Amino acid sequence: MNKSPFPGMDPYLEQAWRDVHQRLCVYACDDLTAQLGATGLIARIDERLVVELPANDERSIYPDIRIVERRQVIPPQPTMTTAGVALADRVTVDLADEAFEEGFIQIIDTRNGAKVITVIEFLSLTNKTPGESRKQYQLKQKELGNAGISLVEIDLLRAGTPTVQAPPWKIAPKNRTPYCAAVRRSWAGLQCDYFPLPLRQRLGGIPVPLRPGEPEAVLDLQSLIDRVYQNGAYAIDLDYSRPPVPPLEGEDAKWAEQVVSDSQAR
Q1: How many Å apart are CA 6 and CA 12, to the nearest integer?
Q2: Residue (of 111, 179, 192, 180) closest to 151 by Cα position
Q3: Cβ distance 208 to 34 under 8 Å?
Q4: What is the mean pLDDT of each run of 10 residues along the chain (266 residues)?
Q5: CA 156, CA 181: separation in Å to the nearest integer?
Q6: N- or C-end of the chain: fewer Cβ atoms within 10 A?
Q7: Taking the model in full, what pTM does it have?
Q8: CB 255 within 8 A of CB 7
Q9: pLDDT for position 82
Q10: What pLDDT score was predicted for residue 60?
Q11: Longest Cα separation, the chain
Q12: What are phi and psi of 81, to 5 degrees?
């Protein structure tokens, strides 16, 4: 099976988000490059450094989902020095925080001093988890607006606190969906377009603003997710016999179980 059993975003992909995120950036950049043609605009992937803190730290910004092999605990044996003195029991800890690179896309105007005109973000838990990283991302939102740079945000994660530019309290309850996107055009002032992305439907296309008065590019989110799933060999990797992480609830959980059951019966 090279295709996800789910019609839209596969909720099981969220537990492998680092890999999914990197692939989305690459495939989206490729699609944009094909659309930009001879406009003098180019799409480039940039990176920022993110530091991961321990999961029990209140400032943890990327609570990874890890698979841990539990080994039998063997009581420590006394260690003798050359002087014949038994050393005290020890516990080894990692001192350094784990750092990793997180990508985003910039559209650059090569005819205007390599000016950045649009930034595209696929949100990660670092953006949606309360702490320093989320604060920095929200600061970036403001700085891009002040600099006259358009911003496209695509949130395909159910976990975390809503962080896209369109605040939840401004969205009618009927339009609040597990996934969403937001597009703010640099020339539109304080206006922002919000795109609901329901769990049970195919993902739609999201416009990418370029220069004022020019036709906009489009990111086909469903095509991107389909490529991520196939090229990442997730049909082999994902365990559909267990609930996704984070788990679905209520009718969504029942629906997902039925989708998986139907796909396995085929």
Answers
A1: 10
A2: 192
A3: no
A4: 91 96 97 95 83 45 29 49 66 51 90 94 94 92 95 97 92 94 95 96 97 96 98 95 95 97 88
A5: 8
A6: C
A7: 0.81
A8: no
A9: 56
A10: 35
A11: 82
A12: -85, 175
Please give the pLDDT value at position 152.
Answer: 98
Distances (CA, A) of 178 to 10, 103, 138: 12, 22, 20
- Pick the closest to residue 188 from 216, 154, 169, 221 (CA basis): 216
Q: Which two tokens stand for residue 152?
A: 């496209």
Q: Taking a C-beta distance cutoff of 8 angstroms, is the pair 114, 120 a contact?
A: no
What's the confidence (pLDDT) of residue 56?
44
Predicted local distance difference test score (pLDDT) of residue 67: 27
Q: Are 155 and 129 in contact (CB under 8 A)?
A: no
- For the record, the structure tokens of 205 come out as 């296309």
Q: Return the HEC string of the chain.
A: CCCCCCCCCCHHHHHHHHHHHHHHHHHHHHHHHHHHCCCCEEEEEEEEEEEECCCCCCCCCCCCCCCCCCCCCCCCCCCECCCCCECCCCCCCCCCCEEEEEEEEEEEECCCCCEEEEEEEECCHHHHCCCHHHHHHHHHHHHHHHCCCEEEEEECCCCCCCCCCCCHHHCCHHHCCCEEEEEECCCCCCCCEEEEECCCCCCCEEEECCCCCCCCEEEEHHHHHHHHHHHCCHHHHCCCCCCCCCCCCHHHHHHHHHHHHHHHHC
CA 68 to chain centre: 23
